[in-house]
Amino acid sequence: MLELVEETRAELQDRALTPSGRLRISAPHGIDQTQLPTLINTFMGHYPEVSISLVLTNRIVDLAEEGIDIALRFGPTANENLIVRKLLLMNLSVCAAPMYWRTHGVPLHPNELASHNALVSTHLNPMSKWRFEVDGEPLEVAVRGRLNATEAGPLIQAALLGAGVLYLPSVMLEPYIESGRLVPVLSEFVRSDMWLSAVYLQRRHSTAVQRAFLDFLEHRIKPGGRVHKG
């Protein structure tokens, strides 16, 4: 009987330490343009007993109410009695198509963007204000434009057609910048406080799969959209 008890206890301990079960993750739209999908598949390859449910939404989810284990978020993260684990500092780019800059002129200072047609992400900039840093101090520029959207895709397509100026995470724009279809400006003024963070509830005991996934992300996610293979 004692041997059976010890065997059962050891088996339960192994289960507690071995990542298994389903992990529910929420993430904003546009996350598919980053390295996250590759990382998730690599993680599941390492842990065959783990399943993942990925919920894509731009709204701030209630983790407890919606049963979310980890929420991945872009931008500054407010204190909501959650644990915040910063994963990656997000570079930003101010971009427009070459035809747009030729027609409207290239701004030399962020304040000049107030007179341009801004393509605003209401997820990242709900107040239609773009924040920059000038001489180490924050500067907010009130922008206006004829098109805003909760997702980056329509804004990027509009910018490629010469419709206006974007201010988005560089990882979403890199293919278009590299091909010359979008031209970045004001790079010395972009804000430096936008993070990809993982947030989760302050539970007394976190699960093995939650701990494993957070550690995996922290060690594998790298600047520039690259995935660390080591």
Q: What brief labels describe this structure?
A:
D-Maltodextrin-Binding Protein, domain 2, 7 helices, alpha/beta, 3-stranded antiparallel beta sheet, 230 residues, disordered C terminus
Order of helices and strands: HEHEHEEEHEEEEHEHEEH
CATH fold name of the largest domain: D-Maltodextrin-Binding Protein, domain 2
| Strand order across the largest sheet | 2-1-3-12-4
Number of helices: 7
Mean pLDDT: 84
- Count of separate structural domains: 2
Structural class label = alpha/beta
For the CA atoms, what is the radius of gyration?
Answer: 21 Å
Oligomer category: single chain
CATH superfamily of the largest domain: Periplasmic binding protein-like II
Poorly predicted tracts of residues = 10-16, 224-230
Explained architecture:
This protein is α/β, with parallel strands linked by helices and 230 residues long. The chain has two domains: 2-89 and 194-225, D-Maltodextrin-Binding Protein, domain 2 (3-Layer(aba) Sandwich); 92-189, D-Maltodextrin-Binding Protein, domain 2. It has helices at 2-17, 36-46, 63-66, 98-104, 152-160, 170-179, 208-220, and strands at 21-27, 50-56, 70-74, 82-89, 92-96, 117-121, 129-134, 137-142, 144-149, 166-169, 183-185, 195-201. The strands form four sheets. Strands 2-1-3-12-4 form a five-stranded mixed sheet, with helices on one face. The chain is elongated.
Helices and strands in order, then pairings?
Layout: H1 2-17, E1 21-27, H2 36-46, E2 50-56, H3 63-66, E3 70-74, E4 82-89, E5 92-96, H4 98-104, E6 117-121, E7 129-134, E8 137-142, E9 144-149, H5 152-160, E10 166-169, H6 170-179, E11 183-185, E12 195-201, H7 208-220
Parallel strand pairs: 1-2, 1-3, 6-9
Antiparallel strand pairs: 3-12, 4-12, 5-10, 5-11, 7-8
